């Protein structure tokens, strides 16, 4: 028998072993940062083909990780995608999961398991920073001057710093945990759907004072020279400036990472860029040829860079899984005259795909999707189908947490695909929805894509103006391998395939779950 190696030699051997073969607990409990952009299209960043602007920080994530060509969100609007990401359940199964109004109560109820509560049980400290848009408070809605609960802290987050709704809806205040910070009791905050009395300036009554004009719908209460959806008064000391949102998200995220650098943490960095009103900080304005929409994209890229710098500075990059995604596809004119259409030039926000926000065409839900974990993920490109709804089951598998029977009904474990493992497989099917109220769905299964419409119009008026309100039949079938832009309906040539997909979609919707209970 050979003698055992001396202790110094053992140490040298350990130092030579790759990170992934060392401490199992460390390897399987990385920090997790999910960066969700807002309204970012497949073709909006340079690593996915954009040439009208450069996104070097997002490109770096791609170069150091896996860039997915078939990465999806589950819906083509914000609230349902965010609901599905956190709950691992298609939004059409929930109540009030369409685009949430300003005074919406908490949509995800206390007692609901979420990706945050899963990771809490695994020993993670959890935070959501940025846009929420999933409602706050009980059935009567938010108490803006009191405790805003239930909210994120009741469904698995240890802390939050939020834009409570979305910034084209009132109010323009932050929420820290359960309170609106800096609120003056002598100037209470009131939020409503009806115009208050006495008269307060709106986009209709004081349009000439606006620094960004509205094009449709966004003509109620004015704040910071921009009119919004809904009405509010008071809370002046608590109000923020649109231009400062990205800086605030980075500031609070860096604080959270620094405070939790010595223990596993989960950060949901929920950007508001590039949602309307697009009002990037002055240092980004005019930096692209695409107007404020393009400027907001490079502001988003800066945010990604600041998070990456923080990980590098704290030596956390090799123990942090970063997921970059978007809540839905692109939109140009979404209610404001910000030059998005006039300055689009040759830029293709959805890349080669049709449709965008509000649409079940590929452009509505196929978005940039990148994973990076330095030292663990081998850089490359993957064609596997992955979706934001799968983060719950995948992170549960990574951290060895079991999935409860009655939650995460549609979340699949695709962790091997997310980590770029050889021969790993993604999803074999995916349901895509619009805002939910229309009853319109898409079902992708392999190369086939079925559209089922609840209305007779399907095209997105604010992305493809030349195709606005195009009449469509109740069902369409596309071969994505031959026709990724979904231009030719082949349902007449493949009636049997269409019939099978119709039945599969109906089964998924009516059976109440698509994830096997054994998963």
Helix content: 10-25%
Q: Uncertain runs with pLDDT below 50, 5 residues or more?
A: 1-27
Rg (C-alpha, Å): 23 Å
Shape: globular
State mean pLDDT (0 to 100 scale). 91
Instruction: Give the total of beta strands.
Output: 17
The CATH architecture of the largest domain is 3-Layer(aba) Sandwich
Alpha carbon gap, first and last residue: 46 Å
Could you name the CATH topology of the largest domain?
Alkaline Phosphatase, subunit A
The main β sheet shows up as:
9 strands, mixed
**Beta-strand proportion:** 15-25%
Pairing-aware structural class of the strands and helices? alpha/beta
The H-and-E topology, N to C, reads as HHEHEHHEEEEEEEHEHEHEEHHEEEEH
- Strand order in the sheet with the most strands: 5-4-3-10-1-11-12-2-13
Pfam families: Sulfatase
Keywords: Hydrolase, Signal
Domain Sulfatase N-terminal: 30-399
Protein name: Arylsulfatase
Overview of the molecule:
Residues 1-27 form the signal peptide. InterPro entries: Alkaline_phosphatase_core_sf (IPR017850), GAG_Ulvan_Degrading_Sulfatases (IPR052701), Sulfatase_CS (IPR024607), Sulfatase_N (IPR000917). Residues 30-399 form the Sulfatase N-terminal domain. This protein is an alpha/beta fold. The protein has two domains: 23-427, 3-Layer(aba) Sandwich (Alkaline Phosphatase, subunit A), CATH 3.40.720; 432-511, 2-Layer Sandwich (Arylsulfatase, C-terminal domain). 22% of the residues lie in helices and 16% in strands. Helix 5 runs parallel beside helix 9. The termini are far apart.
């Amino acid at each position: 028998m050979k003698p055992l190696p001396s202790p110094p030699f053992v140490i040298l051997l350990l130092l030579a072993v790759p990170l992934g073969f060392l401490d199992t607990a460390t390897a399987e409990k990385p920090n997790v940062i999910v960066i969700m952009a807002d309204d970012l299209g497949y073709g909006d960043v340079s690593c996915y083909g954009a040439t009208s602007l450069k996104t070097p920080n997002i490109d770096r994530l791609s170069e150091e990780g896996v860039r997915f060509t078939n990465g999806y969100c589950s819906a083509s609007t914000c609230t349902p995608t965010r609901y599905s990401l956190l709950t691992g359940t298609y939004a059409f199964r929930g109540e009030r999961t369409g685009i949430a109004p300003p005074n919406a109560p908490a949509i995800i109820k206390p007692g609901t398991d979420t990706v945050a509560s899963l990771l809490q049980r695994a020993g993670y400290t959890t935070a959501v920073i940025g846009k929420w848009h999933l409602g706050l408070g009980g059935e009567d809605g938010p108490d803006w001057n009191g405790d805003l609960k239930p909210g994120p802290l009741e469904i698995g987050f240890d802390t939050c710093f939020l834009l409570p709704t979305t910034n084209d809806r009132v109010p323009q205040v932050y929420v820290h945990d359960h309170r609106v910070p800096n609120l003056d009791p002598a100037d209470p905050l009131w939020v409503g759907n009806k115009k208050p009395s006495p008269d307060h300036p709106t986009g209709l009554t004081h349009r000439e004072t606006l620094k960004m004009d509205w094009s449709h719908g966004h003509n109620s209460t004015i704040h910071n020279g921009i009119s919004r959806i809904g009405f509010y008064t008071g809370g002046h000391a608590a109000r923020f400036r649109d231009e400062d949102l990205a800086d605030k998200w980075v500031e609070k995220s860096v604080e959270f990472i620094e405070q939790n650098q010595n223990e596993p943490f989960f950060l949901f960095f929920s950007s508001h860029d590039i949602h309307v009103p697009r009002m990037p900080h002055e240092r980004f304005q005019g930096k692209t040829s695409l107007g404020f929409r393009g400027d907001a994209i490079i502001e988003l890229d800066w945010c990604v860079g600041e998070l990456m710098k923080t990980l590098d500075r704290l030596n956390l990059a090799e123990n942090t899984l970063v997921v970059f995604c978007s809540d839905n596809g692109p939109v140009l004119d979404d209610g404001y005259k910000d030059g998005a259409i006039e300055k689009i030039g040759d830029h293709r926000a959805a890349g080669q795909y049709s449709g965008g926000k509000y649409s079940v065409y590929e452009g509505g839900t196929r978005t940039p999707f990148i994973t990076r974990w330095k030292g663990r993920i081998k850089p490359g490109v993957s064609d596997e189908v992955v979706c934001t709804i799968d983060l719950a089951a995948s992170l549960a598998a990574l951290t060895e947490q079991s999935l409860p029977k009655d939650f995460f009904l549609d979340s699949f474990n695709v962790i091997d695909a997310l980590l770029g493992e050889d021969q790993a497989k993604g999803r074999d099917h995916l349901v895509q929805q619009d805002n939910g109220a229309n009853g319109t769905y898409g079902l992708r299964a392999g190369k086939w894509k079925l559209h089922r419409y609840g209305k007779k119009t399907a095209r997105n008026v604010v992305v493809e103006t030349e195709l606005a309100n195009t009449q469509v039949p109740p069902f369409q079938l596309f071969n994505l391998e031959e026709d990724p832009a979904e231009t030719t309906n082949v349902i007449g040539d493949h009636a049997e395939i269409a019939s099978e997909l119709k039945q599969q979609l109906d089964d998924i919707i009516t059976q109440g779950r698509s994830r096997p209970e054994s998963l």
